[in-house]
Amino acid sequence: MESQNLTDISDFLLLGLSDDPELKPLLFGMFLSMYLITVIGNLLIILTVVSDAQLHTPMYFFLSNLSLADIGFISTTVPKMLVNIQTHSQSITYAGCLTQISFYALFGCLDSLLLTAMAYDRFVAICYPLHYTAIMKPRLCGLLLLLSLFISLLDSQMHILMVSLLTFCLNMEIPHFFCHPTQLLHIACSDTSASTTVLYCISAIFGGVPISGILFSYIRIVSSILSVPSSGGKYKAFSTCASHLSVVCLFYGTGVGVYLSSIVFSISRKDAVATVMYTVVTPMLNPFIYSLRNRDIKRALRRLVIRTN
User: Could you write out the DSSP letters of every residue in 249-284?
Assistant: First the structure.
């Protein structure tokens, strides 16, 4: 089969989640609703944190930035899918594909690093409560955010470099609803062993290090909670990190499983459906998890509603 370099290719074909034309209107309505809920919910979290002085703490500083990253994460993939469904088109340009990969890696990595920063914040709050304000200063929070952005940009550029080295055949069908890096590895005609190794290294470094940081933080947190003598004290300490732990389990539980399985096993539409869990469902559920399980957010939302009325 004839092959050509990626830079000579004008379009890829995104096969989406289903070929059934009767399902297209249902998919369009479902993903449009999920996208609007995600954007509105996360914007509401950001507005609540910004407008309430009582929420101007490190925890909610990272939460508002996580909400912003979630909006960017879902906006990388879903709008293009909605446009393709509405226009009955499956094409995405070479530049569009690279842009999707770039922002997918950027916001995905940023989500991971912000969750790690939030885990560190909870670690300091529970394990060193008397030194919390001295450690979690605004300057440190700003530095952690800037470091997260820098590392995420580096991860994004490494993904772009990896894809730019691939060679593809003329059949450019991607069995997915966006340009997923591992999908491009599977459809490439050239030897992908080097690119696969690079992808493993990127995943191990930019994914493994944050996971290790979160695990370390929660091991120390659990150890500190267990040393609390009263059951009421244990419950109060655990409740301060319950929402964050729920989001971590949802994000990493779905993301890592899908990412590793897409590298090891052959590609299929099932991978695309599973990817919806962490690229669409998780950003949509985050505002609900934090607003329903967090008393401070609920109080701030009530005050915001009262002020607007």
Answer: HHHHHHHHHHHHHHHHSPP-HHHHHHHHIIIIIHHH
Domains in the chain, start-ordered, CATH in brackets?
3-308 (1.20.1070.10)
Residues in the chain: 309
Segments in the chain forming alpha helices (H) = 24-51, 58-75, 78-87, 94-127, 132-135, 138-164, 181-187, 193-203, 209-226, 231-239, 242-264, 269-276, 282-293, 295-308
**What is the spatial distance between Cα 177 and Cα 17, in angstroms, rounded to a whole number?**
6
Query: Is-contact 219 122, C-beta < 8 A?
Result: no
Note the pLDDT tens digit of each residue in 245-259.
888 888 887 766 666
Cβ within 8 Å of residue 156, ≥6 positions away: 102, 103, 105, 106, 109
Of the candidates 9, 28, 27, the one whose C-alpha atom is nearest the C-alpha of residue 173 is 9
* Packed helices 58-75 and 94-127: angle between N→C axes, nearest 10 degrees: 160
Nearest-angstrom CA–CA distance, 107 and 103: 6
Burial category of 302 from C-beta neighbours within 10 Å (exposed 0-12, middle 13-18, buried 19 and up): exposed
pLDDT digits (tens, 9 = 90+) for 176-195: 888 888 788 877 777 777 77
What is the C-alpha to C-alpha distance for residues 254 and 276, in angstroms, rounded to an integer? 9
This prediction's pTM = 0.88
